[in-house]
Write a structure and sequence with these properties.
It is found in: Cytoplasm. The structure is a single chain. By secondary structure, the protein is mostly helical. It is built from four helices and two strands. Helix 1 runs antiparallel to helix 2 and helix 1 packs across helix 3. The longest helix has 103 residues. It is rod-shaped and about 150 Å long.
């Protein structure tokens, strides 16, 4: 039967965190052991804060730490995958945001171009409207002038009775009185 040695784990040059993990591993092996004399001896050594250095205890501890490392590695792989997924989602989201922003900027430019075109059309139409208004005013003035000219030449060609002249005079004097007030 191989000899076993018990040592103080602080002699192993481990940090306090590593010592804690070693004690947890030793305790897990001792409590999960197969009831052999070496697992009972390891359990007694562990309860006294000591570390058992026999072959079967070291193999059991090595297997335990390998399982813990495998579990940690699986968690790391899972978290790494989740990080990649999250990064991709953020990248896609950022890409979508950038795409949306670019689309909105383009839309804004198009709206501004349309506004510029509408303002230009508005100014052009306003200018045309003013020209039409001026032409209409001149046309109306020309029609009034033609009517006055036509009625003036018409009144000279026909003789008016004295009564109609008196009425015109009366109207003229009446309207001149209104203007004075």
């Amino acid at each position: 039967m191989p000899s076993s040695q018990v040592i103080d784990p602080t002699q192993l040059n481990l940090t306090s965190d590593e010592l804690l993990l070693l004690r947890e591993g030793q305790s897990a092996v001792a409590h999960g052991g197969n009831g052999s004399s070496s697992s009972r001896a390891a359990s007694r050594a562990s309860s006294q804060g000591m570390f058992m250095l026999d072959h079967s205890s070291l193999v059991a501890l090595e297997v335990y730490f390998q399982r813990v490392m495998n579990h940690i590695e699986q968690q790391m792989d899972y978290l790494s995958q989740q990080t990649q997924v999250a990064t991709q989602v953020m990248y896609d989201g950022t890409g979508q945001l950038i795409g949306d922003a670019d689309a909105e900027i383009e839309r804004f430019k198009q709206i501004n171009e349309q506004l510029d075109e509408l303002e230009l059309d508005f100014d052009r139409i306003g200018h045309i409207r003013q020209i039409v208004s001026d032409i209409r005013a001149r046309l109306e003035e020309a029609e009034r002038e033609l009517d006055r000219s036509h009625s003036h030449s018409h009144s000279h060609s026909h003789s008016h009775s004295s009564s109609s002249r008196r009425r015109e005079g009366h109207r003229d004097s009446h309207s001149s009185r209104h203007r004075r007030r």
